[in-house]
């Protein structure tokens, strides 16, 4: 029996992490990010599933799966869908566990269309601008909260 179960969701274009625009998104690949999260999770006895998709419906399906498979928390970087997707917000509203929204860049320092997030209306926590470390911060906060 695991301590907790977390689903990590990465939205569109994040499969390109580490290959383009390192000045904004850094040099780590998505696989690097996921591997670090897996190491942290395993050390704490947490189960972890990481998933990336360029398709809104696939991300929604993954949230629906998380509703019913014992997932206790979702860490999500919805990427551009952050700013457009009422459908992802609705799916997260149907999920009963914790939701942490992560952005690698500080969206508030960027174009004004990135300043609004539909997902933030549901998120229990929001991390932006800490680079890929933001994912680790999100996971560590879930792990330490569950231990108290
Ligand atoms: O800062 C973030 O994490 C974002 O969610 C990233 C999204 C952007 O639309 C959001 O406003 C903020 C973009 C993800 C694209 O990722 C790439 C990574 C490397 C190369 C090209 C794109």
Topology:
Layout: E1 4-10, H1 22-25, H2 30-43, E2 46-52, H3 56-68, E3 73-77, H4 86-93, E4 98-103, E5 125-128, H5 133-146
Parallel strand pairs: 1-2, 1-3, 3-4, 4-5
Helix pairs in contact: 2-5, 3-4
What is the H-and-E element order? EHHEHEHEEH
Report the C-alpha radius of gyration, rounded: 14 Å
Question: Hey, roughly how much beta strand do the residues contain?
Answer: 15-25%
- Helix % is 25-40%
* Average predicted confidence as pLDDT: 96
* Tally of contiguous helical segments: 5
Q: What overall geometry do the principal axes of the alpha carbons give? A: globular
Oligomer: single chain
Structural class: alpha/beta
Q: Distance between termini?
A: 18 Å
Kindly report the spatial arrangement of strands forming the biggest sheet.
2-1-3-4-5
Largest sheet: 5 strands, parallel
- Total number of strands: 5
Bound molecules: ligand CA2
- Which stretches are low in confidence, meaning pLDDT under 50 for 5 or more residues running? none
Task: Describe the fold and architecture.
The chain is of the alpha/beta class and 148 residues long. It contains five helices and five strands. It has helices spanning 22-25, 30-43, 56-68, 86-93, 133-146, and strands spanning 4-10, 46-52, 73-77, 98-103, 125-128. A five-stranded parallel sheet has the order 2-1-3-4-5, with helices on both faces. Helix 2 (30-43) runs parallel beside helix 5 (133-146) and helix 3 packs parallel to helix 4 (86-93). The chain is globular. The two termini are 18 Å apart.
């Amino acid at each position: 029996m695991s301590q907790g179960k977390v689903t990590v969701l990465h939205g569109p274009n994040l499969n390109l992490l580490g290959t383009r625009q390192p000045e904004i998104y850094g040099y780590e690949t998505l696989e690097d990010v996921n591997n670090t999260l897996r190491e942290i999770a395993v050390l704490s006895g947490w189960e972890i599933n990481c998933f990336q998709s360029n398709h809104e419906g696939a991300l929604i399906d993954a949230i629906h799966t998380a509703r019913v498979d014992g997932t206790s928390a979702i860490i999500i970087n919805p990427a551009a869908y952050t700013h457009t997707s009422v459908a992802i917000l609705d799916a997260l509203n149907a999920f009963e566990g914790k939701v942490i929204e992560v952005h690698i860049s500080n969206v508030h320092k960027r174009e004004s269309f990135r300043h609004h997030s539909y997902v933030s209306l549901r998120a229990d926590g929001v991390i932006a601008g800490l680079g890929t470390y933001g994912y680790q911060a999100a996971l560590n906060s879930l792990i330490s909260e569950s231990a108290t």
